[in-house]
């Protein structure tokens, strides 16, 4: 790989393994992901898909190997710099992880408030992403009053409001009906088209169609079993 190719890589894993107790969840993973790439990570339950996302955003630490994010070695990030590092990521979870006693607006605004943005910018930006995800009319609603699909739209808005360079989605459609699942997937693909690197973990291959350009990486028993290029 020449120097220009290396500069275009935003995620690099070298012989990465992760152990929980005596159990290997990931085994010797080596993987390069380009800036702006779409990667669909599939495989059976318990294969290690979610663990892979967790070590990328340092929710878990790798047991062995090296990980570079935009040239930064994760093993060398100090605890004081960790919050700033995590701003590179937008996270979407299967169980939404919204704060139930905060409104839709407040759940999304928290990301920008934590980053120290001005209130005028926060209001403008939050309402912009809520319009994009079709939730602007429910900005005063509380998460428990929303459907699963609506809550996941809010979760997507929260993930993208800080304009992260990388979006990680862990089974974002797993608890949704097929129509809601497709809507959420399409939202994520829209942000991919805007330039974000998007990694989606899912067992639902029905979400993929012939128009999608990217890679499908299949993980089984903690290892990469197959990589297929889409289009």
Automatic annotation (TrEMBL):
MF annotations from Gene Ontology: ATP binding; ATP hydrolysis activity; transmembrane transporter activity
GO BP terms in the entry: cell division
InterPro entries registered for this protein in UniProt: AAA+_ATPase (IPR003593), ABC_transporter-like_ATP-bd (IPR003439), ABC_transporter-like_CS (IPR017871), ABC_transpr_LolD-like (IPR015854), MacB-like_ATP-bd (IPR017911), P-loop_NTPase (IPR027417)
Keyword Zinc: no
ABC transporter domain segment(s): 11-231
UniProt keyword terms in alphabetical order: ATP-binding, Cell cycle, Cell division, Nucleotide-binding, Transport
Transmembrane segments: none
Signal peptide: none
Name of a matching Pfam family: ABC_tran
Top-rank taxon, per record: Bacteria
Gene Ontology cellular component list: plasma membrane
Annotated family: Belongs to the ABC transporter superfamily.
Physiological role: Part of the ABC transporter FtsEX involved in cellular division. Important for assembly or stability of the septal ring.
PANTHER family in alphabetical order: CELL DIVISION ATP-BINDING PROTEIN FTSE, IMPORT ATP-BINDING PROTEIN
UniProt-recorded name of the protein: Cell division ATP-binding protein FtsE
Species of the source: Desulfobacula toluolica (strain DSM 7467 / Tol2)
Lineage start: Bacteria, Pseudomonadati, Thermodesulfobacteriota, Desulfobacteria, Desulfobacterales
Gene name for this UniProt entry: ftsE
């Amino acid at each position: 790989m020449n120097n220009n190719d290396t500069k275009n890589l935003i995620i690099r894993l070298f012989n990465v393994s992760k152990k929980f107790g005596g159990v290997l969840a990931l085994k010797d993973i080596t993987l390069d992901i380009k800036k702006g790439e779409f990667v669909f990570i599939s495989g059976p339950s318990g294969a290690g898909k979610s663990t892979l996302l967790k070590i990328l955003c340092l929710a878990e630490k790798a047991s062995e190997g090296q990980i570079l994010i935009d040239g930064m070695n994760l093993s060398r990030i100090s605890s004081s710099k960790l919050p700033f590092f995590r701003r590179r990521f937008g996270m979407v979870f299967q169980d939404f992880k919204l704060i139930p006693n905060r409104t839709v607006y407040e759940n999304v605004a928290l990301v920008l408030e934590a980053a120290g943005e001005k209130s005028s910018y926060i209001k403008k930006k939050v309402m912009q992403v809520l319009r994009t995800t079709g939730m602007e009319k429910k900005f005063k609603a509380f998460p428990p009053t929303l459907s699963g699909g609506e809550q996941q739209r809010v979760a997507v808005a929260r993930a993208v409001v800080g304009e992260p360079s990388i979006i990680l989605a862990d089974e974002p459609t797993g608890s949704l009906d097929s129509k809601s699942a497709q809507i959420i997937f399409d939202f994520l693909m829209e942000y991919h088209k805007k330039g974000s690197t998007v990694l989606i973990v899912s067992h639902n291959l029905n979400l993929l169609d012939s128009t999608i350009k990217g890679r499908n990486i299949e993980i089984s028993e903690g290892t990469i079993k197959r990589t297929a290029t889409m289009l």
